[in-house]
Amino acid sequence: MKTITKKSSVNVNQDRDWKLLLNKYATPILLVLLIAVNAIFTPNFANVNTMWNILIQMTTILLTALGMTLVIASGGIDISVGSVMAISSIVTAKSLGFGVVPAVILGLLISAVCGVFIGFIIARFKIQPIIVTLPMMIGIRGIAQVINDSQLLNFNEPAFSFLGTYKFGGSVPIQVFIMIIVSASVYFIANKMSFGRYVQAMGDNYKASRLTGINTFMVTISIYMISATLAGFAGIIETARLSAADANAIGKLMELDAIAAVAVGGTPMNGGRPNVIGTIFGVLIIQIITVAVNMNNIPYTYSLVLKAIVIILALWARRDK
Amino acid sequence: MNIVNAVTNKIKLFDYKKFLKGEGALITFIVLFLFATFKYDQFFTLLNFKNVLRQVSMLGFVAIGMTFVILIGGIDLSVGSTLAVAGVVAAKVSPYGIGVSIIIPVLIGIAFGVTNGILVTKLKIVPFIATLATMLGIRGIAYIVTGELSVGASSASPGFIQLGRGYVAGIPIPSILFVLAIIAAVLVSKKTKFGRHVYAVGGNEEASKMMGLKVHNIKIVVYAISGALSAFAGVILTSRLGAGQPVAGEGWELTAIAATVIGGTLITGGVGKFTGTLYGVLITGIIQNMFNMQGNLNVWWQNILMGAILLGVVVAQSQTARVSKSGNS
After folding, report:
1. In Å, how far from its chain's centre is CA A182?
2. Which of B126, B268, B303 lies nearest to residue A128, judging by beta carbons?
């Protein structure tokens, strides 16, 4: 780029500025476009109830995607999150007899254990994360199914369902507060704590980060523990909202939505700076597509194609030049 | 001195570390094979071998394509969806004869593969995300084309049905085709310029670019191969089942990746061989076969065991790979 001739430099610079801008703000621009198009064409889209619905439904993806942001920023990937959701969901529902708080803690604990195990295998044996989390995805789903013989588990526990159905002032769902708290925490971890810098350093250059004295072993375990715990938390909230746990269905393909949201949000897939705000935008984009497709009575099948196009558009707009 | 040298050479010939490094998948396969032989009476029978070979051959085609893609440092999640589209298209055109019902689906598979290749190279989207998007999109196409219903191939030409169900000299036709495909893949990877370029691109993309390799074209061709082979697997599946199903091949991308990795291909690219993939495919087939013969295993217990075995093999594989690295340096 140093060889730009003087004559054309102004033009080229302007061109580059415009492209840089698009590059940087591709995700918000796409989100605004999506909202605008839907506000015009989708009946009842610009409506408070629709907004609350979008927010309630995006909780699970957002929590999972926030953990995934750290994982991907560190140069890894975790495709077992959907299965972790299932196991935390069924464990929590199954142990509600011990009381709500112990049940939730148990669910979170089992998720954390899954994450620690995954992180340990990756860090100890230096195996590519996708290869480790693939068998974990299959195995953990199996364990979740065994726990209740693969049956749907219904329960009536108002104190627990509160976690997924309570509305502040009769309208603001509890999920909104959960999302704000978790997003803020992950943002703080990623951007204000040295842990966040370690994550980014490992994603940028794993060897160098080790040489500079980062305890990559512990950081890797912590990253996967955070990711799994958040996925488990998402599973618990979803279980509370439905008042039922179904280990077969819950969290299926959640990993793909979460990974897509992180990628659309601009965290580099090969590792690097975690973009937490971008992930939130990415989740909103994915969720708005899903909701808009439902509201327009477009068959599920077309939504797949639509999602594919939007993911490719978003990544194409912000590709490295 | 000569004798001493000869003896030390002999010892080196039996260097178990080196042997483990090269043939970890083969050893796993043999262990599983012996275990199954002693544990299950029905295992060591010609009929069972035929069944297993036929069952794994379709995954085998997908895994060969996947090995090519992983060798160049990519990944292809769209194979299962491509298989589904090819399968339903094959069912739709099956009345027009065997030629048409192979060529058209395979061409469609190539088109999908080229799309993947262009997304990865020209649009510079990371393979995992690019093929994740096409996996969703192509699956959507499979649903749209069929209206979410399975497409019967009842009026198919007899030749087409033979493709999946027939035998030549007592061996199932899909198995023969799979073995031919493995041989072709081994030859392409070892004896052709293209094969060497694949390893070069996977080993060091920047260096390959500097050496003047057309990295983009090589990648596009590799994704096209993966698309074509997945499509062919879909054609055979349709022929075997007598119907094309839009849900076919769901999750196959993961099994194919697992088989490739078990076979010793490094997910980072540049290292691996197709005989390993053959063993990897056979291992997944034998495990599934043992589950079936056990009879009293729920799907979910199968999942747990499959996960545990996969994890064990992957960890063992990574350890032997590391032994080899420290041994060579």
Report:
1. 11
2. B268
